[in-house]
Amino acid sequence: MRRLTTLLCALALLVVPALIVVPAGPARADNPIVQTIYTADPAPLVHNGRVYLYTGHDEDGSTWFTMREWRAYSSADMVNWTDHGSPMSVATFSWASADAWAGQVVERNGRFYWYVPVTSRATGRMAIGVGVSSSPTGPFTDAIGRPLVENGEIDPTVLIDTDGQAYLYWGNPNLWYVRLNTDMVSYSGGVHQIPLTTAGFGTRTGDANRPTLYEEGPWVYRRNGLYYNVFAAKCCSEFIAYSTAPGPTGPWTYRGTIMPTQGTSFTNHAGIIDFKGGSYFFYHNGALPGGGGFTRSVAVEKFTYNADGTIPTITMTEAGAPQNGTLDPYARQEAETIAWSSGVETEPASGGGMNVGFLDNGDYIKVKGVAFGTGAASFTARVASAAAGGRIELRIGGPTGTTAGTCTVPATGGWQTWTTVSCPVSGLTGTRDLYLRFAGGSGYLFNVDSWQFTGG
Ligand code: FUB
């Protein structure tokens, strides 16, 4: 079925030629984070030693914010990201008709709440829905079967304060908040409007209707007793600015620019976390081939707060954040754990999770900072192929670098008919970037679900 879908997509792309084709040239790192699809509106969450990254999904060839689903990724080291597919979509909300726009996931008492803007089928206005799951990777279900709040505005963000009180903020062109009850799916005390003063949110010139820089995409959090509201400023093109306050409801003081207007997307959208001793700034741009304002990609930079808690200017880079840790090749790794890839797509696997697929000759995956230690002896992978199969070439130094081993993948009779292949490897010692290069004849070769090395 999915091959048919792919064929139909390929035919459609003859009309709208915007398929992501990441050049197979020299390996590079590591922004944007996801190369398999266009992603937007990053919302990171730290949970149990991993960063979960929730994004929107700009459809290939979009000429508007055509977004039907959200996506989830996770990483333990900030460079190798595991694709968890789409745990929630517009279809999750029976009362919504379109627009899987910018949201945020927060955890409370072992449940994960995903606040999102969608268009209400009944009113045609943007409303805030809330999905819920017992797992950070979903699946998420509609928590209340109706909008949590609806006033035609977008981009929810949630702060759970140290006293346990949770706040939901959102808005474009205004800025609003409610006090969430401990159930996280209802609120008390009504809807409050935050005054958009120039002292609080900076001065915009040339738009009498919008005197402050605040545009959309608030990201509210507390750090060392100071409350931050990081937001997309001044349309268009947007830049990322921020305000701070002594409390969750203000008064806000404008603090200036974090990320100047850059990249080839006229929107930007920020998410900030602290993780394993570092601070990280997520954003989006149009950096992938075919990228732009409606075909965006999520990226990340590491930064250090100034001593007084202010945030330095952060610029977009191709390098991205440095790796924070290493990857263990002697534990089972999902094939969809990727630092960089070329030509690769992902899809749901029959046994759960995702697999990589749609692999043509020469496509590859880079996995960064793989800690081989004293040396690996063999490589094992779970593979499937409804075609003729091919080879997994294990390379070091680049996708066409030194070959450390080659595993032959047979035909298995189906794209989800899995078998295990193994092959000896040599020269894999220390901590190296590993390239899995897929080789064979023409057309799609095979799928890979997972892989693992054994030690020497
Ligand atoms: O992705 C759709 C909209 O674009 C988001 O809701 C805004 O924040 C902007 O990024």
What keyword list fits this structure?
456 residues; mainly beta; Tachylectin-2, Chain A; Jelly Rolls; disordered N terminus
Question: What can be said about this structure in brief?
Answer:
The chain is mostly beta strands and 456 residues long. Helices cover 4% and strands 46% of the residues. It folds into two domains: 290 residues, 5 Propeller (Tachylectin-2, Chain A); 123 residues, Sandwich (Jelly Rolls), CATH 2.60.120.
List the helices and strands and how they pair.
Elements lengths: L1 H14 L22 E10 L2 E9 L10 E7 L5 E3 L4 E2 L6 E3 L5 E5 L2 E10 L5 E8 L7 E2 L6 E2 L6 E4 L5 E5 L5 E5 L6 E7 L4 H4 L12 E10 L2 E8 L5 E7 L7 E7 L11 E5 L2 E8 L11 E7 L29 E2 L2 E2 L1 E3 L2 E4 L5 E4 L6 E8 L4 E10 L4 E7 L5 E8 L4 E11 L6 E9 L7 E9 L1
Antiparallel strand pairs: 1-2, 2-3, 3-4, 3-5, 4-24, 6-8, 7-8, 8-9, 9-10, 9-11, 12-13, 13-14, 14-15, 16-17, 17-18, 18-19, 20-21, 21-22, 23-34, 25-28, 26-27, 28-33, 29-32, 29-34, 30-31, 30-33
Bound molecules: beta-L-arabinofuranose.
Mind explaining what this structure looks like?
This protein has two helices and 34 strands. By secondary structure, the chain is mainly beta. The chain folds into two domains: 14-303, Glycosyl hydrolase domain, family 43 (Tachylectin-2, Chain A, 5 Propeller), CATH 2.115.10; 333-455, Jelly Rolls (Sandwich), CATH 2.60.120.260. Strands 1, 2, 3, 4, 5 and 24 form a six-stranded antiparallel β-sheet that branches. Strands 6, 7, 8, 9, 10 and 11 form a six-stranded antiparallel β-sheet that branches. Strands 25-28-33-30-31 form a five-stranded antiparallel β-sheet, with no helix packed on it. The protein is globular. Residues 40-41, 56, 65, 101-102, 154-155, 216-217, 232, 267, 269 line the site of beta-L-arabinofuranose.
